[in-house]
Amino acid sequence: MALTVTLVSAEEEVWHGEASLVVAKTVEGEIGFMTGHEPVLAILAEGQVRITQTDGAKVVATAHDGFLSMEGDVLTIVAGHAALQA
Q1: What's the chain's average pLDDT?
Q2: What residues does the ATP synthase F1 complex delta/epsilon subunit N-terminal domain cover (predicted)?
């Protein structure tokens, strides 16, 4: 099983796909998500969102001014600004 992850900014969908692990920075500190994680609603802090795809490939984005929501195995990250890092 995999997480279904969507990362969006105010302007566009930045990334969408399946992941085995996602780590994001919230105002409470960093939090990691895997399948089966309990439901969470948290405020994003400025920082990185690190996504490990199911094939092991890594995606790194910066995000801030928003929130994240985990429900079931679906993680949605909504940011005022988000961009993939090269």
Answers
A1: 97
A2: 3-82
